[in-house]
Amino acid sequence: MTERTATGRTGTLPFVALRPGRAFSLRYRVRTVVVSVILVVLSFATAVLSLGTGDVVLSPGEVLAALVGRGSTIAELVVLDLRLPRVLLALTIGAALGLSGAIFQALTRNPLGSPDIIGLTTGAFTGVLVVTVFIGNGYFQVAAGALVGCLATTFTVYLLAYRRGVQGFRLIIVGIAVSAILTSINHWFIIKVDLQAAYAASIWGQGSLNGLDWTQVPPVLGLLAVLTAALALGGQRLLLLEMGDEIATGLGVRVERARLAYLVLGVALIAVATAAAGPIAFVALSAPQLAQRLTGSAGIALAPSAAMGALLLIVSDWLAQHAFAPTQLPVGVVTVTIGGAYFAWMLARAARTQ
């Protein structure tokens, strides 16, 4: 491992280069690593707070003892059986949303290039409504509908935006148009289904972690691990694509092939998250931007985006459970509030700088 310095817009910035072998090389800016570690620590601290808060209140020490199998019977029952699955899913789904948003924003080179904006989550909701109307509303049926709807929407947007390649701005515009059409279709489906199915679909459409248990944890963790490994194997190609097609091509990247591969990974991440918890809005949009501001990096970084997504969702879920206790809100209601405030601030700041 060697430590070097690189000159950037803000001066001389240290980075750490890891070179275990010729086939594998990683370079990290020290500030990016530090920010990522801080975000992970904050996420863990919030997770401990969430595990100890509720009808049965536990201290952080009792929570940690239960996690390592040294707590009381009641503490281990509450922490391990009842609360831990939800906390794990909040962290992993938040990380998946942050990664997906980072991929799409890097590919489009636009802060609005998010799955929320270009219609992928709306398409997942359409898939759920179709399944609810024609098949049923069981968990695995709903998850399959969300996955198929997300994939079909992605294919449609990509096909309509393709013209001798896919440009980021065109992808966003086409995605917004497709999202508007799907939104009207979703409203029509909700009007046509029976009241109970419409209520269940509406709750799911807000994005919620309520009712999730250990049965959802292994598939979400497993798929996220596989997709994260695939992203790691991609190396620095996403950063090169963010620099522009000409630069990426000059550096030996097959642009369309690499862009399509990252699109597939980004869609898979948002599909995993949406299939498990519904279309949770604004995390994928805001997490990469907040992480970029904290790290001060010129481009979108994946690790801080994942850590920020996990932190945003675990904090939002804690607020959703306890802000209006005993009533539990869908976590999507909280993320929309936080994300909407951030989005308004971002637009106001952009207007002031012009």
From TrEMBL:
* Transmembrane residue ranges: 32-52, 87-105, 117-136, 142-162, 169-190, 220-240, 260-285, 297-319, 331-348
Task: Tell me the compartments it is located in.
Answer: Cell membrane
The family database entries (InterPro entries) matched by this protein are listed as: ABC_BtuC-like, ABC_transptr_permease_BtuC
Q: How does it sit in the membrane?
A: Multi-pass membrane protein
The UniProt record lists the keyword Transmembrane? yes
| Keyword Nucleotide-binding among UniProt keywords | no
Q: Which UniProt keywords apply?
A: Cell membrane, Membrane, Transmembrane, Transmembrane helix, Transport
What the record says about family reads:
Belongs to the binding-protein-dependent transport system permease family. FecCD subfamily.
Tell me what this protein is called.
Answer: Iron-enterobactin ABC transporter permease
The scientific name of the source species is Cryptosporangium minutisporangium
